[in-house]
Specification:
6 helices, seven-stranded mixed sheet, binds S-adenosylmethionine, 16 strands, Rossmann fold, 2 domains, alpha/beta
């Protein structure tokens, strides 16, 4: 179980992480309070601290280089123009990598995620983050980052944390809505109407397009979902992609990028290519 309280690494020396868990600093997202277009140098690092339900928004630029090359090669081999659906794309920084790689052969790019927005408020010395259900998910100060995690433990600290989150009266607080999209991608989308952002649940039918490439990176993992749920997400993808479409599953494991690609044929997904042993859910894909 991950610790619900971490030291904010923008204040404490890095070596303290050997004594107490440490977190990157989510408070840099506060610049968006002012409605500014200010660029956060490491937007992905700040975003990656956010946790909605069981999944973190963890992402970083450059981590899909192998998966992206598979997409480029597929488009070259089939002479297709890309109509891409990126599922669970977090802030889209890896989508931006692929958009830049593909250049002119891009027709459409849908950057999607279940959690595309967060709501923030300042309260005393804390910055509090809320999900779309108005539930506080995280609070951060200069010193600490505290998660509102449902936990079995009945330790004193855990019950204190739970009580402080329960005492936050969400309704009475004025909150700012923040779009969790990398500022460079957001800016690019304003001058490039091929790029759009959608709040989308991977378990739902996608009706905005018939993609010929679907990217599923670091989301359909056994750590997040049961085998039955993973199978139902895969079934749903089969329901809306075009015949011959490329489905790219990838997972960043330690320093390694594992990739498995499939081609939709009739009612099935046929194994196409694999790198570094492929993803852990290959046995659930048919
Ligand atoms: C670990 S991040 C991966 C982000 C990005 N694909 C990457 O590899 O860098 C998982 C993402 O999946 C999103 N997510 C969680 N459940 C989801 C669901 N049911 N449907 C769509 N996205 C979901 C989370 O909000 C989070 O942004």
């Amino acid at each position: 179980m991950k610790a619900p309280v971490k030291l904010n690494n923008s204040f404490f020396p890095k070596w303290l992480k050997f004594i107490m868990p440490m977190s990157e600093d989510p408070t840099s997202l506060e610049v968006f309070f002012e409605g500014t277009e200010e660029f956060i140098a490491d937007h992905s690092t700040a975003i990656s601290t956010l946790k909605f339900g069981d999944t973190f928004k963890t992402t970083s630029a450059g981590r899909h280089s192998e998966a992206n090359n598979f997409v480029k090669q597929y488009l070259k081999d089939t002479s297709k123009r890309a109509d891409i659906l990126d599922l669970g794309a977090s802030n889209g920084v890896t989508s931006l990598d692929l958009i830049e790689l593909l250049g002119d052969c891009l027709d459409r790019y849908y950057v999607t995620d279940l959690n595309l927005k967060v709501w923030m408020t300042r309260h005393e010395n804390w910055l509090i983050f809320f999900d779309s259900f108005n539930k506080p998910i995280l609070k951060a100060s200069k010193y600490f980052v505290v998660y509102n995690d449902p936990m079995d433990s009945s330790s004193f600290i855990t019950s204190r944390i739970r009580k402080t989150f329960e005492s936050i009266n969400s309704r009475n607080l004025t909150k700012e809505e923040i779009l969790l999209i990398d500022p460079r991608l957001e800016k690019l989308s304003r001058s490039n109407d091929k790029i759009s952002f959608s709040e989308h649940n991977i378990f739902d039918f996608w009706d905005k397009s018939t993609p010929n490439v679907v990217k599923v990176s670091n989301i359909l993992n056994r750590a997040y979902f049961s085998d039955d749920l993973i199978k139902s997400a895969i079934q749903q993808i089969k329901n809306y992609v075009e015949d011959g479409a490329l489905i790219v599953f990838s997972r960043n494991d330690a320093a390694m990028e594992k990739v498995s690609t499939f081609i939709k044929k009739g009612k099935s997904l046929i194994a196409h290519e694999s790198l570094n042993g492929g993803v852990e859910i290959v046995d659930l894909i048919d």
